[in-house]
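Hi again,

Forgot to attach this to my earlier email, sorry! This is the prediction with guanosine-5'-diphosphate-alpha-D-mannose bound. I've pasted everything inline since the attachment limit keeps bouncing my files.
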Amino acid sequence: MTKSAFITGITGQDGSYLAEFLLAKDYEVHGLVRRASTLNRSRIDHLHDPRLHLHYGDLTDGVSLVNLIHAIQPDEVYNLGAQSHVKVSFEMPEYTASTDAVGTLRLLEAIRAAGIDTRFYQASTSEMFGATPPPQNETTLFYPRSPYGAAKLYSHWVTVNYREAYDLFAVSGILFNHESPRRGESFLTRKVTLGVASIKLGITDHLTLGNLEAVRDWGYAKEYVEGMWQMLQHDEPQDYVLATGIGTTVREWCQYAFAHAGLDWEEHVRYDGAYERPTEVDALIGDASKARDVLGWKPETDAQGLAKLMVDADLEQMSRLLGRS
Ligand code: NAP
Ligand code: GDD
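Structure tokens for the complex follow:
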């Protein structure tokens, strides 16, 4: 029988890859979209599929969630919607909490109110580890360092609680940074690869960044959404870390990306303290051995390979826009 899935955050990086993945698996896919004054669906515009259904709603609007879950009765729910930018969460802490923390509670309550037997995936994050040094796995102490990390930690624990209190099949995927050509333009990796393309094509000659010393564990988003689905197919609801296990500094990311375009990063990167956060997460490096052993999940793309594919994609797209391809 055809399965159905409901995805919050379907217009985002992960939501778009997950929708593609589930449609290829023959799911009927329902996505929550926010009303905006201009259409915000560029990542899913290519999905012309009668099994894809989009519904207006918002994680800050509990009534919309109750009505949609009641009407759709999905077999699986993926809660990927969030105000996902760490630095922005310092500027909009209350909105971030309403979406990223209480939004999860609203969705869980909508599932409970509908009384349906659904499987629930929560997009937890390595940001919850914050100040606790690497390597980080499912048993590592949480110590968030931003309103975003704190809000996500609430969602993580309320997901655990609904699993234990109401016997809901609810899991948290604690995902380390994952990127792609669809990554939002203000996240570090994409900001750099877009900067490389602009410099290479002569549009600008420099790129301005903040902290170059932070270490992140960067993987490829397309591989991570498969892990989300695998978590919901297992017999038992459990939490898993997904990561590559390799730490890369922001400085090294710049080296990889600029070098791939034949450029020397030190000639083009400038510093501006405005891009620093009030509290930084110095180092995130994940240990995904549980996902490997229990689910058979294994990442294939490392940071260097990712930098290359993202630079190539941005160069191609920008050349096309400039009519040079
Ligand atoms: P993203 O590209 O920023 O996408 C976020 C999605 O959430 C977008 O579809 C956005 O809609 C939607 N959204 C924002 N506020 C909402 C609200 N109030 N109600 C409903 N939807 C809302 O994020 P991503 O990189 O795909 O990440 C997916 C999820 O995984 C997020 O929860 C993120 O926090 C988490 N996560 C990401 C990473 C990572 O490295 N990418 C790592 C760990 C966890 P619009 O398009 O309308 O803005
Ligand atoms: N965005 C950004 N812009 N980051 C910069 C810049 C800059 O100009 N310069 C240096 N950085 C540093 C940040 O200080 C941070 O240490 C690192 O680059 C990565 O920043 P982001 O790409 O913004 O990602 P993040 O690690 O803060 O958060 C992402 O990963 C989390 C998982 O660990 C987001 O996708 C979160 O939603 C996700 O939960």
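The first strand starts at residue 4 and ends at 8. The longest helix spans residues 93-114.

That should be everything now.

G.
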